Amino acid sequence: MTDRQHSVAVLGGDARQVYAADHLTRAGYAVKTYGLAADTQRAIRCASFEAAINEADIWLLPLPMTRDGFQITGTDISVTQLVSRMSEKHTVFCGRPDTECLQKMNSRGSKVIDYSQDEVFMIRNAQPTAEGAVGIAMNEMRRTLFGSCALVVGYGRIGKLLSELLIRVGVDVTVAARKDADLAYAALRGCHTCKIITREKGSELPALSSGFHVIFNTVPVLLLDERMLEATDRETVLIDLASAPGGIDYDAANRLGLKTVVALSLPGKVAPLTAGEIIGDCVLSYMRGGDGSP
Fold this sequence. Notes:
By secondary structure, the chain is an alpha/beta fold. The chain contains eleven helices and 14 strands.
């Protein structure tokens, strides 16, 4: 089956889904939508869920697929309603389905792909996340980024790109990471480094949180705890990029008067067009037998 023989239903979500629908249409797919945040330029907007999925062999669901485990994000479609219409002829792309939803979908014989766990998707998504984090820092700080000092906690996909962006605009960057190899690489890229200490009770940062104008956390483990925050300068801006539960003790931060920004799903907020095309490319790659690459 060629791309032009596929029919896609894009269901729910934010602006990323709008741009993903247009991206897939440009690639030759027949695309219908339901429950999108806005009209697309090329896809057909349907008045009902049933009309959107009629004849569609590919379904594209949003990221996150649901916010409550019961209803598809941005729509009136329940998970039960969705699953009841699935069969072995469908390939369903979804973002971060919870365990129960995934089990229900898999029971219908459909091929279910969580595109949010695709390595290429996560690498490409790190760029708009890093850019968005820099933008937040510029808006929240009372000084320029140039000449400031920043701590980046974690040196994964986002931490690497974020550190590079900060260095390029003249920030003195310290990277905190667990792996010696990551610290060695960060040092070669011009960063100061600090090792995250691993103990039996969990991981912790040494007491180095003073002297920074902004701290970016990318690790979903509580490292910026009350002990760390008490040593943090009150003008420091804390930006948490990690998935829930995050890595900052928010209660302690509020009690200490620290400015904290929880910055989840940045690609959809700061660069929905790019983020939508990344989602669309994941669909295209899988349907062409690839690994998620564009």
